[in-house]
């Protein structure tokens, strides 16, 4: 018994010596700096045997690697690559390294040893709580993803060979922002550290006007024709060209039609020729001369269609193809345009053509007016007539003899005139509205006299 007791005491002493001298070496390495015991992980990072600084650097490398990973946001076949760095992916502040350093270092030596062995065999894991910037995620969806949205396209129509030709509408799509953000957050909040794909949630967008709607726009709202029987071939060609350029223009509700945007440029390349036009009181040859008769004809068709007249100018002098105040001049150099607005609830189509020395405009749309009991007429009123000066405007031609005298431009009277829209219901006048006030300059005769010296 005595020998047995001595042996047990010896064994206990040896264990104590191992605890004092061997275990501390394993737990604290070189004894100069605290190190984390074996079997400790922060997230998936094994920080066993690391100092606080080493563990901090290991975690930084870990999050840097995670921030390089990405996911694909697919928008109807288009792909946006988003890295975790784009979202400021990181983890919430914590004191896990400090806690890890404290493992196996509390209590007596035997408890420390036991705790360390338990950790080493059982594995201690500190889970990180990851974060990302939801505002940046929202911006990616609301700005980047929505840039791929496709606007719907209205159906369109035209006139060809006296019949309507229709082009079907095209559906668009839009991003459903909130469901898309939630789908991404679901992936991020349960991320397995692998790249992933999210399909943006989209919905179809129908256009405002389908083919079925356009098929209702089959009534002539306004039609007008002017003649140019005395015009030169070049001026006639300019009118035909102007009609061609404007023909089949479509105005959806609220759209504003600009004549110059369709007619310009006035150039030979755009189909125009040299023809007469007003300039500073005289008729001069310019490229595109006669374009004002195009816009004048359209003006009268627009009046009959009761469209809103946005911009209109009278000529500087009277014209022969319409009565006073029924004209609409355009001039690129003077900044004069003729513009109308579709103030109806449906699209309108402008049909224009020239034949047999006549130019015609038809405005097609959906007729909602009471055409049976309601009638609209336009009446002009001459406010003042101005006689031209008797003093002729003389141009001397040194190539002609002194006996040469030719009137190159007849004298023109000037006028103040007004245009009124008169509405009748059941044959009774119910309204009279002033549409425009027009002023036309008086111009004396222009005469060329020879000044050649004998």
Automatic annotation (TrEMBL):
SMART domains: G5 (SM01208). Residues 373-453 form the G5 domain. It comes from the Bacteria. Keywords: Signal. It comes from Herbinix hemicellulosilytica. InterPro entries: G5_dom, Glycopeptide_resist_protein, Vancomycin_resist_VanW, YoaR-like_PG-bd. This is G5 domain-containing protein. PROSITE patterns: G5.
């Amino acid at each position: 018994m005595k020998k047995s007791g001595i042996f047990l005491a010896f064994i206990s002493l040896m264990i104590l010596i191992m605890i004092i001298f061997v275990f501390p070496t394993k737990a604290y390495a070189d004894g100069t700096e605290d190190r984390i015991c074996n079997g400790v992980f922060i997230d998936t990072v094994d920080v066993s045997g690391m100092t606080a600084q080493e563990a901090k650097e290991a975690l930084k490398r870990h999050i840097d690697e995670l921030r390089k990973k990405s996911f694909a946001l697919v928008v109807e076949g288009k792909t946006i690559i988003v890295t975790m760095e784009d979202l400021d992916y990181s983890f919430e502040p914590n004191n896990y390294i400090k806690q890890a350093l404290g493992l196996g270092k509390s209590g007596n030596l035997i408890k420390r040893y036991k705790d360390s062995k338990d950790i080493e065999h059982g594995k201690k894991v500190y889970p990180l709580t990851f974060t990302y910037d939801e505002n940046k995620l929202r911006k990616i969806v609301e700005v980047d993803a929505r840039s791929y949205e496709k606007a719907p396209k209205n159906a369109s129509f035209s006139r060809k060979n006296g019949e309507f030709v229709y082009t079907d509408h095209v559906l668009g799509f839009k991003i459903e922002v909130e469901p898309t953000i939630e789908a991404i957050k679901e992936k991020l909040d349960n991320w397995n550290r692998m790249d992933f794909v999210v399909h943006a949630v989209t919905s179809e967008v129908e256009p405002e006007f389908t083919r079925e709607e356009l098929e209702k726009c089959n009534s002539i709202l306004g039609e007008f024709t002017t003649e140019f029987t005395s015009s030169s071939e070049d001026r006639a060609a300019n009118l035909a060209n102007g009609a061609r350029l404007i023909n089949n223009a479509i105005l959806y509700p609220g759209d504003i039609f600009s004549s110059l945007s369709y007619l310009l440029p006035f150039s030979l390349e755009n189909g125009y020729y040299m023809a007469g036009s007003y300039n500073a009181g005289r008729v001069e040859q310019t490229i595109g001369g006669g374009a004002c008769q195009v816009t004048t004809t359209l003006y009268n068709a627009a009046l009959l269609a009761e469209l809103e007249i946005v911009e209109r100018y009278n000529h500087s002098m009277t014209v022969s193809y319409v009565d006073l105040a029924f004209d609409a001049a355009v001039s690129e150099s003077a900044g004069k345009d003729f513009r109308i607005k579709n103030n109806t609830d449906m699209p309108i189509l402008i049909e224009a053509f020239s034949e047999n020395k006549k130019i015609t405009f038809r405005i097609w749309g959906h007729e909602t007016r009471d055409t049976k009991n309601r009638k609209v007429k336009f009446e002009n009123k001459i406010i003042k007539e101005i006689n031209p000066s008797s003093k002729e405007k003389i141009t001397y031609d040194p190539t002609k003899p002194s006996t040469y005298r030719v009137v190159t431009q007849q004298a023109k009277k000037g006028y103040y005139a007004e245009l009124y829209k008169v509405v009748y219901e059941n044959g009774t006048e119910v309204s009279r509205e002033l549409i425009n006030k027009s002023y036309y300059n008086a111009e004396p005769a222009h005469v060329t006299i020879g000044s050649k010296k004998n």
